Amino acid sequence: MDGFLLILGAVTCEIHMDAMWLLPMAHTIPWVHFETYLKKEVFPVMGSYLYLLGGCAVLTVLCLAASGKYQAGKE
Fold first, then answer.
1. I want to staple 25 with a disulfide (CB 3.0 to 4.6 A). Which of 9, 10, 31, 75 is the partner?
2. In the predicted model, what is the mean pLDDT of residues 6-19?
3. What is the DSSP string of 9-71?
4. How many Å separate Cα 59 from the centre of its chain?
5. Distances (CA, A) of 61 to 2, 21, 64, 70, 72
6. Residue 74 pLDDT class (50, 70, 90 cuts)
7. 17-67, pLDDT tens digit by residue?
8. Which residues contact 29 (CB under 8 A, 6 or more apart)?
9. What local confidence, expressed as pLDDT, does residue 28 receive?
């Protein structure tokens, strides 16, 4: 599954599909945020920061919730 998402992210970034903004790969490549010739911003860089920070926050909450179930010595 991870390999499929990686390939899907690479393909959507390479052909500049609108769906590339749904996957994390596009948010980590600075030059896809701008048009090639006019340098007009296609997607705000701050939006990418918020997307990645939101993902980290969700994963942190999920990890904390899961760790409470598996603590050694907890009865």
1. 9
2. 84
3. HHHHHHTT-GGGGGSHHHHT-GGGGB-TTT--BSS-HHHHHHHHHHHHHHHHHHHHHHHHHS-
4. 12
5. 21, 23, 5, 15, 19
6. low
7. 888 888 888 888 888 888 877 778 888 989 999 999 999 999 999 998 888
8. 13
9. 84
d(CA 13, CA 20): 6
Q: Is the pLDDT of residue 71 over 70?
A: no
Q: Is the dihedral of CA 38, 43, 47, 48 positive or negative?
A: negative
- Residue 8 in tokens: 């899907």
DSSP state of 2: H
